[in-house]
Structure formats: structure tokens, C-alpha cells
């Protein structure tokens, strides 16, 4: 085989491993390049949640089959094996800065007593390791500890170079190199995308945590009146230990404040950190199409913020079949993979507006401490389940809707802020937030 392949996959996350395995099972000669020592060695933050089929993404209703130990994608008719642990959780609670009032999505009590499993957390390293081993059996040629730095389009397809000196050629490349995709940059795909912002955050696995109804995901806002302003955080059960939680904040100062000085400090009586992961996310608007010069983009690489593991697996799977069919039909070009391009445009781009996704993080910056307490106190009805980040903000608004008249009477300024804050305007609000009198930290 030497350095020539049918398909070169860059990146060994869920999208790349699924793509490489599927293409090799279809009989293609596949190389996968990954810069880490092993794909299952996870350094980047990921909450490792998988939503069940009470929700949907990308026009698919994926779910985890506990009996068969598989992630099932019924609409697209495939599954992914998973032999690791999982832990169910039952609801999503938004907690106000007073640490008491909460807006509830999903029915915790009903689900905890066997009424349903809206979501689970899982062990991503086990998922990735399983895919890696299946790919190995199918004949994928793995190149580990390789940092892809150069790409060029050739007469026969693509040429990929690494910092370590490899030169590989292929008919197609699948870019599965994640949210800060170098391929999206060096192929020129990013030139047509809008750069939105860079977000840094830190996540700790912690023990010694105690609070009520803890088998849920908590999206909280704490408030440091002296220095930090609003301090959003997320707390979620961990898959690794029953007494462990995944704790996500934007930085060390925020972590210190939350656990030692905030109104939430009683939640952390014997706090210990068991593991830490970090991430930096460059947010771009989604690409107009997931293809450039025989590079097919999957997963996070050409999407906004996160495709999620489910979207990564799904797009990797679909792209691998598209490449296999293109080569079978003797069409090693854009026309050959048009099925994938059209599927992605219809099921991702046309059905998910990234501005909806941006609304929730911005919601955490829009109001004052007192306003958050007031809003969380108003909504006492349980809202229908979702954790789909494209739907979260509109679900919150559905909860507030019946109370808007009261807000108008009691807090006209707050009502005005709510009215101003719409997905169509979110891009304008990100930068001028401070000027409009919203806290901007
Ligand atoms: C804080 C946070 C929480 C999240 N929580 C969840 C969650 O609960 N559930 C969920 O489903 N999703 C979650 N996600 C999103 C999820 O992690 C991603 O959508 C998913 O991992 C994307 O998979 P991917 O294969 O596209 O990219 P990645 O998983 O990022 O994989 C990319 C791979 O490419 C490699 N790579 C990158 N550049 C190069 C290069 N130049 N050369 C060689 N290799 C390279 C990387 O090392 C990496 O292994 C979360 C993300 C964040 C940031």
C-alpha cells in the first residue's frame, strides 16, 4: 500500500474512528492520522451525555439500548457497539443565584421512579477504544502521534503531510479533526464562515458533593458581587463513580468562588478533585457545505460549537458510505459524494440554526442577579424534556411565556430586555451587551 490510500481520515474522535472503521468494512484502504498517543486518551472536556429517543438531532432519533449495549441510529439504520458503564439521569434543572429556585425541564420524580430515561452519561474512552479496535480488525492503518499540518489537492485526489514527515495520498480525505479544525483552515473552508468567539473552560471530576435530587444535570448561575459577576456552571453525575460529579466552569477563579464563597458552597462539604480536563473552542458559523477539494468534513470540524458525539458518529458513518459509493462508481469528486453533502445540508444546516444554540450561553449574561432570582422563581411548572442545545433557550422561553404579562407589570425594564433578546438578534447582542446595560462578564 505504501503511502497511497482510498481514504485518509484526519482525527480519531468519534467521527473519525466511525468513518475509518465503516470505510474499511466496506473494503477501502484507509489511513487514520491522530495526533495523540491513542484516540481513547481523552484530555478535552466532554460531559459524555447521550440523549435518548425522547429527543432528536439531525433528523435522527438515536438512543442507547441497555439490553444490546449499542448506540442505535434507527432512521439511518446502523448502530455503534458500546461495552462500558452508563448512568441514567432524570431531568435538567436551571438553578438561580439564590441556590434555591429552579426551573425544571423533565419530570425528575416520574423518571427516577422508572417513568423514563431521558439521558445517560457514558464512558467516552470505552466508546473510542471499541471503535479503534473494530477499525483495526477491519484493516484501518493507524498513524498515531501524527500532527497533520499540510493539505493539497492533487490530480488524483488529496495529499496530506504531517509535522513528523509523513506524506500520504488518497482519493478522498475525511476531516474529523474537531472544533478547531486545521483542515477547515488550510483548505480555505473557514474563509466563508463567520468567526464568532473563542471560549475557554475547565471541567473537574469531583467528590464530596451533597445536594438534593442530585441525579440530574444542573445548569446554575452563581453571583460574585465583588469581582466575577455571573458565574455560570454545570454539575452532572459522573459515570466513573457513584459519588462523583462532573463540574464545569469557565476558569479556576470561578471554581474557587463557587465551591468556597458562593451561596452554593454548602453543596461541596468535602470537595476533592479526582480528574481535570480543559477545552478551548473557536466558534464559527457552520460551513455552507461540508466539502472542499475532495475533503469531506464531519463532526465538529465544520459545524457550530458541537456536533455532539451522536452527530459525530452519524456524520462519520454517512461520509464513509458516501466515499465508498463514489469510488465504486468511479466518481472520486464532489459529484460522487453529493448524497452526503445534500444529507448534511438538509438534516444539519436547514434544520438547526446556530443562533438558537448561542442563546443559552448568552442568557447567562443578560440579566442582573435579582432578575435571575425573580425569573427562576416565576416558573413553577415542569417543562417538557429536552437537552438539545438548539432547543434549550426556546424551552426556557416557553416556561416564561405564561408569566410575561406579570413581568411587564412588575418589572417593565426586565420585560424589555426579554423582548429584545431573540435568536435573530443574538449576534448583535454578543458584542454590544455591555453598552445595552447588560452585565458583560
Ligand atoms: C465542555 C464540553 C462538553 C460536551 N459535552 C458533550 C456531551 O455531554 N455529549 C455529547 O454528545 N457531546 C458533548 N460535547 C461535544 C463532543 O465532545 C463533540 O461534539 C465530539 O467529540 C465531536 O467529535 P469529533 O470526532 O468531531 O471531534 P473530536 O472529538 O474533537 O476529535 C477530533 C480528533 O482529532 C484530533 N486532531 C485534531 N487536530 C489534528 C491534527 N492536526 N492532526 C491529527 N489529529 C488531530 C484530536 O486529537 C481528536 O482526537 C461536549 C463538548 C464540550 C467542549
Q: Mind telling me the CATH class of the largest domain?
A: Alpha Beta
Under the CATH scheme, the architecture of the largest domain is 3-Layer(bba) Sandwich
Which structural class do the helices and strands define? Answer: alpha+beta
Largest sheet: 8 strands, mixed
Regions with little confidence, pLDDT below 50 for 5+ residues:
432-441
Tally of separate helices: 13
CATH H-level homologous superfamily name of the largest domain: FAD/NAD(P)-binding domain
Fill in the CATH topology of the largest domain: FAD/NAD(P)-binding domain
Number of domains: 3
Mean pLDDT: 93
End-to-end Cα distance: 54 Å
Small ligands present: flavin-adenine dinucleotide
Principal-axes geometry comes out as: globular
Q: Give the C-alpha Rg.
A: 23 Å
| Percent of residues in β-strands | 25-35%
Strand segment tally = 21
Helix content: 25-40%
Structure in words:
The protein is α+β, with helices and mostly antiparallel strands and 441 residues long. It folds into three domains: 4-84 and 122-193 and 287-349, FAD/NAD(P)-binding domain; 87-117 and 196-282, D-Amino Acid Oxidase, Chain A, domain 2, CATH 3.30.9; 354-430, no CATH class. Helices cover 31% and strands 27% of the residues. The protein is built from 13 helices and 21 strands. It has helices at residues 14-25, 108-115, 124-138, 182-186, 252-261, 308-328, 338-349, 354-366, 369-378, 392-400, 404-410, 412-420, 426-430; strands spanning 4-10, 30-34, 49-51, 63-65, 70-73, 78-81, 86-89, 92-95, 102-105, 119-122, 141-144, 148-154, 157-162, 167-175, 195-207, 217-224, 229-237, 245-249, 272-284, 291-292, 295-297. Strands 1, 2, 11, 12, 13, 14, 20 and 21 form an eight-stranded mixed sheet that branches. Strands 9-8-16-17-18-15-19 form a seven-stranded mixed sheet, sandwiched between helices. A three-stranded antiparallel sheet has the order 3-10-7. Helix 1 packs parallel to helix 3, helix 1 (14-25) packs parallel to helix 6 (308-328) and helix 6 packs antiparallel against helix 7. The longest helix has 21 residues, at 308-328. The termini are far apart. The model is unreliable at 432-441 (pLDDT under 50). It binds flavin-adenine dinucleotide (FAD).
Amino acid at each position: 500500500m505504501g503511502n497511497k490510500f482510498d481514504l485518509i481520515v484526519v482525527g480519531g474522535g468519534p467521527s473519525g474512528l466511525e468513518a475509518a472503521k465503516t470505510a474499511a468494512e466496506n473494503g477501502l484502504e484507509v489511513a487514520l492520522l491522530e495526533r495523540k498517543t491513542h484516540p481513547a486518551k481523552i484530555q478535552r472536556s466532554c460531559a459524555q451525555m447521550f440523549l435518548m429517543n425522547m429527543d432528536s438531532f439531525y433528523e435522527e432519533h438515536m438512543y442507547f439500548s441497555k439490553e444490546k449495549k449499542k448506540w442505535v441510529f434507527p432512521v439511518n439504520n446502523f448502530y455503534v457497539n458500546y461495552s462500558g458503564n452508563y448512568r441514567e439521569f432524570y431531568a435538567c434543572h436551571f438553578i438561580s443565584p439564590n441556590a434555591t429556585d429552579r426551573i425544571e425541564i423533565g419530570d425528575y420524580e416520574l423518571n427516577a421512579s422508572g417513568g423514563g430515561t431521558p439521558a445517560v452519561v457514558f464512558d467516552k474512552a470505552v466508546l473510542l477504544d471499541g471503535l479503534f479496535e473494530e477499525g483495526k480488525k477491519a484493516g484501518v492503518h493507524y498513524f498515531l502521534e501524527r500532527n497533520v499540518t499540510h493539505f493539497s489537492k492533487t490530480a488524483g485526489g488529496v495529499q496530506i503531510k504531517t509535522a513528523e514527515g509523513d506524506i500520504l495520498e488518497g482519493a478522498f480525505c475525511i476531516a474529523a479533526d474537531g472544533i478547531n479544525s486545521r483542515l477547515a483552515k488550510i483548505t480555505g473552508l473557514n474563509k466563508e464562515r463567520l468567526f464568532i468567539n473563542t471560549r475557554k473552560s475547565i471541567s473537574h471530576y469531583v467528590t464530596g458533593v451533597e445536594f438534593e435530587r442530585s441525579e440530574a444535570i444542573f445548569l446554575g448561575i452563581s453571583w460574585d458581587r465583588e469581582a466575577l459577576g455571573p458565574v455560570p456552571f454545570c454539575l452532572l453525575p459522573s459515570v466513573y463513580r457513584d459519588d462523583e460529579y462532573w463540574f464545569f466552569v469557565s476558569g479556576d477563579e470561578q471554581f474557587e468562588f463557587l465551591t468556597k464563597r458562593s451561596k452554593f458552597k454548602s453543596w461541596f462539604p468535602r470537595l476533592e478533585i479526582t480528574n481535570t480536563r480543559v477545552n478551548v473552542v473557536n466558534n464559527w458559523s457552520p460551513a455552507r457545505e461540508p466539502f472542499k477539494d475532495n475533503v469531506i468534513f464531519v463532526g465538529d470540524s465544520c459545524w457550530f460549537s458541537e456536533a455532539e458525539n451522536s452527530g459525530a458518529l452519524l456524520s462519520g458513518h454517512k461520509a464513509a458510505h458516501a466515499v465508498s459509493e463514489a469510488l465504486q462508481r468511479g466518481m472520486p469528486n464532489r459529484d460522487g459524494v453529493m448524497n452526503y453533502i445534500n444529507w448534511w445540508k438538509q438534516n444539519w444546516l436547514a434544520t438547526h440554526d446556530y443562533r438558537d444554540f448561542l442563546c443559552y450561553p448568552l442568557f447567562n449574561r443578560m440579566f442582573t442577579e435579582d432578575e435571575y432570582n425573580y425569573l427562576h422563581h416565576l416558573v413553577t411548572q415542569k417543562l417538557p424534556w429536552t437537552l438539545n442545545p438548539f432547543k434549550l433557550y426556546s424551552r426556557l422561553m416557553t416556561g416564561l411565556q405564561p408569566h410575561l404579562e406579570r413581568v411587564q407589570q412588575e418589572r417593565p425594564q426586565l420585560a424589555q430586555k426579554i423582548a429584545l433578546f431573540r435568536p435573530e438578534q443574538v449576534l448583535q447582542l454578543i458584542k454590544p451587551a455591555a453598552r445595552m446595560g447588560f452585565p458583560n462578564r
